Amino acid sequence: MKKYSFISAVTCLLFQIGIMCAYGQTTQMAAGVTKISTGEIDQFTPYGFCSEPPAKAALDKLPSGKLPFNMADIRISINKRGVVVEVPLDPSEQLYGFGLQIGSFNQRGLKKRPIVNDNPLNDLGYTHGPATFYVSNKGYGILINTARYTTFYCGSTARLTNNNAVSAEVKGGNSVEELYKSDHKASGYVTADIPGAKGIEVFVFEGPDLKNAMQRYNLFGGGGALPAIWGLGVKYRVKADFKQSQVDKMAAYFRDNHIPCDVLGLEPKWQTAAYSCSYVWNKDFFPTPNEFIDSMKHKGFHLNLWEHAFVSPKSPIYKSLKNKAGNYLVWNGLVPDFADTAATSIFANYHQTTFVQPGISGFKMDECDNSNISFGSDTWSFPELSQFPSGIDGEQMHQLFGLLYQKTIYGIYKKLNQRTYLDVRASNAFASSYPAALYSDTYVHEEYIRMILNSGFSGMIWSPEVRESNSIKDFMRRSQTAVLSAQTLYNSWYLQNPPWLQINREKNNKGELMDNAQTVEADIRKLLNFRMSLIPYLYNAFADYHFKGIPPFRALVMDYPDDKNTYNLADEYMIGNSILAAPLTEKQDGRKVYLPQGTWYDFNTNKPYEGGREYTIKPDLTQLPIFIKGGTILPLARPVEYVTPDTRFDITCYVYGKADASATLFEDDGITFNYEKGSYNMLNLIWNKNKGQTKRDGKFKNTRYSIKKWQVIN
Ligand code: GAL
C-alpha cells in the first residue's frame, strides 16, 4: 500500500458557521483505487469488514484510469452535524448505483438515502442492499465508507456563493407553470451528508470507463462471487409447514415429471421455533433429518434452510450468545453482535456441526434488513438506538447486519472448501465476493426487472422470485424474468402446489388445480429447460465476475457508455457478453427494445436486426425475449434436470453472424474452491474461417463440456 501525503490534513476555516474543511490524506490502495481519509474514522465500516483481499493481479491488468476531475477537488468538511463530502459533477454526467435501488435507475438529479429496509416505499432510497456507492458514465466510482445513514444529493442542491446572480425583479406572467419555473441551477457536485460521523474515508475507483470502474470496485472487494454450479439451476422453496413426507413427494413430482430442480428450500417450520429461531430440527415434521438430507442428495437435490439471525431462548446457542448480543430483542430473540468475532464464531460453529457437515448446502438468511412498516402492517427488528457489546450502535448494525450475516455463514463453507449459493435479504458494499442472492417480498415485476440492472452497479446478486400470479400471462412473464436472472427461484412458501398448476393462492391451497395446469406445466418445463441449457454460459459469466470483476447481469450503459440512448434504459440488460434481455410484464403484449450499435439476432426467429435503433417485439409466453449479439458464440447445453459433480454438458455452439468469433467456457469441479489454486480450465471456443475449434488451457484434469456441434446463424 503506497501512502503519500496529498495536502496532509490541511484544515481551513470556511464560511461563517465554523465549517472545517479537510482534504485529508490520500492512500493508493490498489491500481486505480485511492482512499481519501480525514478526521476520526468510524470503527465499524463496510470496508472494515471486507473479508477478501483485493484481487491485485486482476486490478493491475485493467487499463489505467483517468478521473474527469482532480482528486483534490473532492471536498470533505467536518462540522458539528457530521461530515459532508462533495464530489465534482459535470452537467452531462449520469449516475447509477446506491445499492440495490428499487424505484429508480439513473440517479442523476435525485436525492437518495440508501437505508436498509424490507419495504422500500416511495423511492427515497430504502433498499435491501444500501451501498453508499455510485458510478458515473464518465468512468469512475465513489464509495463513502460508512455504515451511517447517509443522504446523497445527486446534483440536486444549489449553494449560496458570492457568484450567485441576484435577480432584482420578478419577471414573467402569473400562470402556475411560471410560478414554479425557476432559474435554479444545481451545483456541480454530488453532496453526501453523513450525520454523526467525525471523519470519513472516501474510496475513488477509476475507470477509464464505467465498466472498468465497476470491475475495479468488484475486484477490490476480492472479485465477484462464483456460486456452486448447481446454484445456477432451479431452486424451489416448499410450503412453510411441509413435513418430511411432503417434501419427499414434491421431490418425486419434479423427477417424475422431468421438471428441472437442483435445490429444495425448507421454510420456517423445519425448526422447533422460527420467530425467533431455535436452529433445531422439528422432529415432529422431520423425524430423521440426516437421513432425509442423504436421501435428497441421492436424488440430486441440494437442501437449503430458511432462518433468520434472531436467536430464540429455545436455542442451544442462546446462553452462550446472551452476553454477546444487543440490548434489544427481536421476536423475543437475541440479536447476535456480529461485529464481534466471538459471537460470529458461536453462531458459525453451531451451524457448521449441526447443518453444514451433515450436508445442508445453503441457507436463506431472512429478515436481516429492517422494517418501517412491514407487509402485515406491523413493524419489527431492533431499534437504531440499540447498543451492542462491540460498541457498534443499532443504526450501523442495521446497515451492516446482512453483510455480517453473509460473512458468518459463507465463512463456514469457505473453511470446509465447499461452495454454496445462499439467499439473503440484506447486503451492503463490498459484498461482491459473497455468493448470496438478494430477494424481496415486494413482488412488483417492473421493479424486479429494474433491480437486475441495479444489482450490476452494486456488486450484488438479485433473485426476482416467482410466487402466485394474477394471470397465466403474469406468471409466464415473471418466470421468463426469473430464468433470465442470477437465480431462478420459485418461492412457494405459502403454496401447497407448484404455482404453475394453480396460480391463484387460495385455490392452490385448496388443491383446485387449473384446467390447463398440464399445458402451463409443459410451458414452464420448456422455460426451465432453457435455463438449464444456459448454465455453462452463465457459469462463464460468473467466472468473468470473479476473475475480471465484470457483473454477469448489467445495464446496457455499462457496455455502451457513449450511447445516450442507454442512459435511461431501465428494463433491458446484458447477460454475459452475448445476450441482451428485454423482459416483458403482464401489462405488455409487446414492447420496444433498443439495440445498440452492431447486428443483433432475435433468438426466437434468428432474424438479424441492425442496432442503433428501436424495434417492437412480441414474443409469446414460451419464447424468451432475448437478442444475441452478432460476432459472438452462444454455447448452449442439452438440458439436464439437475447438476451433479459428474455432469458433462453436451454443447452446441451457435455462431451469430459471418465473422470469426470466439468465446470461453470456464471449467472446474463446480463445487470446491480449488479453482483458487489454479485447478480450472478455460475452454476456448474459436470460430475461424468457417470452422469451429476448441482449445483447453489449464490444470483441471476432468472435463465438464463436450462440444457436439457448431451451428451458424446469419
Ligand atoms: C419472509 C420471507 C419469505 C418467507 C417468509 C416465511 O420474511 O421474505 O420469503 O420466507 O418470511 O415466514
Throw out a few tags for this protein.
714 residues, TIM Barrel, Immunoglobulin-like, globular, alpha+beta, binds beta-D-galactopyranose, seven-stranded antiparallel beta sheet
Give the distinct bound molecules. beta-D-galactopyranose
In CATH, what is the class of one domain? Alpha Beta
CATH fold topology of one domain? TIM Barrel
Query: What is the correct CATH architecture of one domain?
Result: Alpha-Beta Barrel
Coarse shape: globular
State the distance separating the first and last CA atoms.
51 Å
C-alpha Rg, in Å?
A: 26 Å
Average predicted confidence as pLDDT: 94
The H-level CATH homologous superfamily of one domain, spelled out, is Glycosidases
Oligomer class: single chain
* Number of beta-strand segments: 36
- What profile does the largest beta sheet have? 8 strands, parallel
In order across it, which strands form the biggest sheet?
A: 21-20-19-18-17-16-15-22
Uncertain spans, ≥5 residues at pLDDT below 50? 1-21
In helices, the fraction of residues equals: 10-25%
Give the helices and strands, then pairings:
Layout: E1 2-4, E2 11-14, E3 19-22, E4 25-30, E5 33-40, H1 56-61, E6 75-78, E7 82-88, E8 95-97, E9 111-112, E10 133-136, E11 140-144, E12 151-154, H2 176-180, E13 189-195, E14 198-206, H3 210-220, E15 234-237, H4 244-256, E16 263-266, H5 289-298, E17 302-307, H6 318-321, H7 341-356, E18 362-365, H8 394-415, E19 422-424, E20 436-438, H9 445-455, E21 461-462, H10 472-483, E22 488-491, H11 505-510, H12 517-548, E23 553-555, H13 556-559, E24 573-575, E25 579-581, E26 591-595, E27 599-602, E28 608-610, E29 613-617, E30 626-629, E31 633-637, E32 649-656, E33 661-667, E34 681-688, E35 691-698, E36 705-713
Parallel strand pairs: 15-16, 15-22, 16-17, 17-18, 18-19, 19-20, 20-21, 32-36
Antiparallel strand pairs: 1-4, 2-3, 3-6, 4-5, 5-14, 6-7, 7-13, 8-10, 9-12, 10-11, 11-14, 12-13, 23-24, 24-25, 25-30, 26-29, 27-28, 27-30, 31-32, 33-34, 34-35
The structure holds beta-D-galactopyranose (GAL).
